[in-house]
UniProtKB/TrEMBL annotation:
Gene3D superfamilies given in the database record: YVTN repeat-like/Quinoprotein amine dehydrogenase
UniProt KW Ion transport keyword: no
Pfam families: YNCE
Keyword terms: Signal
Full protein name: YNCE-like beta-propeller domain-containing protein
Start and end residues of each YNCE-like beta-propeller domain: 127-254
InterPro entries in alphabetical order: Haem_d1_sf, Host-pathogen_enzymatic-act, WD40/YVTN_repeat-like_dom_sf, YNCE-like_beta-prop, YVTN_b-propeller_repeat
Length: 345
């Protein structure tokens, strides 16, 4: 009787917590903490923790908000006993063990934190993206020179596409088959067709391309070039470099404002957050210390979440004046953040 009463109370608590954060949620992967912090973006407060993500660095949320895709940065990850039945049916244990230095992508129900599947991929992955139709996830394989394309409907590795040296970041286009991949060791951006597995084009950009963001109309791709201290602007679909915006040392996280008129760049090497007006080129910046790192815009309210590479925290920044309104304490350093589509609205 006591056990049943406890179960009912616990279920009620979980339901209440889910309702409490449904207005807007951010998911913050914390590699060293082996989990994901769930943040209520209305209150800028941690309200939950999703465990079971080894060395989680890359993270993406499906367009319907139901599924999280988490990529492991550590090599040699193996499937554990008690994995979901689907993974066992597709040989997940054998594939991970035989690869030796393979990696794992974890699929998680966002509402409950339940692990749906673990999918073995050839190696460690830096970042991950999901196509707008929710069909494919793309994980960059920095060691293996390509991307792993995962079929989320069938929950399996569909194909591996070679792209270049040290692929870092992936950004999908609106057509749900084109994905742009930055290759930091090749100074290129690959244009990948995830359905056919073909690289349609390769664009040479400034040195050390890493994080990227695509304009709302899909006509401009902004590429952080960490090796050049700049943002390369690529015109699409022709794949032509039209501009290089000097930023400062070690640009890392990047995001566009709600209107698409301002570009925000986290300068890890200068302890600064930079905002560039794309209409007239004017700039504002503020000190954020130590080491501003990953950057994400909270949809609907003009705020930014900026993680620190040197501390376990995320700053909440007003996109209008770069003022810091809050600091969210986390269990470990936060990497690629994922926002629910309705967050902050």
């Amino acid at each position: 009787m006591r056990a049943r009463l406890f179960s009912l109370l616990f279920a009620g608590f979980v339901a209440a917590a889910s309702a409490e954060v449904s207005a807007g949620q951010a998911y913050l992967p914390m590699g060293q903490a082996r989990g994901i912090a769930v943040v209520d973006t209305q209150r800028d407060a941690v309200v939950g923790h999703l465990p079971g993500v080894p060395s989680g660095h890359g993270l993406a949320l499906s367009p319907d908000g139901g599924l999280l895709v988490a990529a492991s940065l550590a090599a040699g990850a193996t499937m554990e006993a008690g994995e979901p039945e689907h993974a066992a049916h597709h040989g997940g244990k054998a594939a991970a063990r035989e690869s030796g230095g393979g990696g794992v992508v974890t699929l998680i129900r966002a509402a409950t934190g339940a692990v749906v599947a673990r999918i073995a991929i050839p190696g460690p992955s830096h970042h991950v993206a999901i196509t707008p139709d929710g069909r494919y996830a793309v994980a960059t394989l920095m060691r293996d020179g390509g991307v792993a394309v995962i079929d989320l409907r069938e929950r399996r590795l569909a194909r591996v596409v070679p792209t270049g040296v040290a692929p870092n970041y992936a950004v999908p286009a609106a057509d749900s088959r084109t994905v742009y991949v930055s290759n930091s060791g090749s100074a290129t951006v690959s244009v990948v067709d995830v359905v056919t597995g073909r690289v349609r084009d390769s664009v040479t950009v400034d040195a050390g391309p890493e994080h990227m963001v695509l304009s709302g109309d899909g006509e401009r791709l902004y590429v952080n070039a960490a090796g050049a201290g700049a943002v390369t602007v690529v015109a699409l679909p022709e794949g032509r470099v039209v501009r290089s915006l000097e930023t400062g040392r070690d640009p890392h996280g990047i995001a566009l404002g709600r209107s698409g008129r301002r570009l925000f760049v986290a300068l890890t090497g200068e302890d600064r957050l930079l905002a560039i007006d794309l209409r007239d080129g004017s700039r504002t910046s503020r000190v954020l210390a130590p080491m501003p790192y990953h950057l994400a815009r909270v949809p609907g309210n003009g705020r930014l979440y900026v993680s620190s590479r040197g501390e376990s925290r995320v700053w909440v920044v007003d996109g209008r004046d770069l003022g810091v309104s809050a600091s969210i304490q986390t269990s470990a350093v936060v990497h690629q953040m994922a926002m629910s589509a309705e967050a902050g609205q």
